[in-house]
Specification:
This protein is mainly alpha-helical. It contains nine helices and six strands, in the order H-H-E-E-H-H-H-H-E-E-H-H-E-E-H.
């Protein structure tokens, strides 16, 4: 990869079908990271990554690091708080760039060059330590945790983002349509591409309840209650 330009490297990754670096829940890791800011499009978004330890907790939850690696990262962060704060800031900057890129994909808007540059810069950092392995006839990018250090979660997310952006699956990225500003990003894996909400049990359920109330609202503003 060192002898190719960035553009040709991306083209080759796309042609080779590099895996998306999925989290333990089967979702692309890059989208999982964007969703660590809850209700990001609302007037009062909730930040879940308030310290580097939160980032390690997230990485552990998504099963991209095991207990041993999680302990090592926490130990490194504890030993060097300034370095941990800098790495968390870089990770959040990457997260926000990815969120804007994938929201643009979801709404068929042009991708911002500045956001692409953030992702590519981080990917290029990771690529220097990247190894490729064959897994079930797919080329899977692998990072050495010891050499990545505190940057491990950020680098993994950037590799995932490049994998998704250069794949056909990018056309299936959607943003939750909840009117409160949920902003959850997801891959629509339904056969007919009909999914519009983050989860049927959450924003989807609320939307159904609202539609039910609207259908049964009387002219005076009351709601009819049907009893058996």
């Amino acid at each position: 990869m060192s002898r190719t330009s960035a553009a040709s490297a991306v083209t080759r990754w796309s042609r080779w079908g590099v895996a998306l670096v999925e989290a333990g829940d089967g979702r692309p890791l890059c989208l999982s990271l964007t969703n660590t800011r809850f209700f990001r499009n609302s007037a009062a978004p909730r930040e879940t990554l308030r310290g580097y330890a939160d980032l390690v907790d997230w990485a552990s939850l998504k099963k991209i690091v095991g207990p041993k690696e999680a302990n090592r990262l926490v130990g490194q962060a504890t030993a060097s708080p300034p370095a941990a704060r800098r790495e968390l800031a870089r990770t959040i900057a990457l997260r926000e760039a990815m969120a804007r890129l994938f929201a643009a994909k979801a709404h068929h808007r042009e991708l911002a060059a500045d956001d692409l540059a953030v992702v590519m810069t981080t990917f290029n950092e990771a690529a220097k330590q990247l190894k490729l392995a064959i897994d079930d006839e797919r080329i899977v990018p692998c990072l050495d945790p010891a050499r990545a250090g505190l940057a491990l979660p950020r680098w993994q997310a950037a590799v995932s983002a490049i994998g998704l952006l250069t794949s056909k699956a990018a056309a299936r990225v959607k943003e939750c349509a909840d009117d409160r500003g949920c902003g959850w990003l997801f891959l629509d894996t339904t056969r007919n591409g009909s999914r519009v909400y983050c989860f049927s049990s959450e924003c989807g359920n609320r939307a159904r309840q609202m539609k039910f109330r609207e259908r049964h609202r009387a002219g005076d503003g009351t709601v009819h209650v049907h009893r058996a």
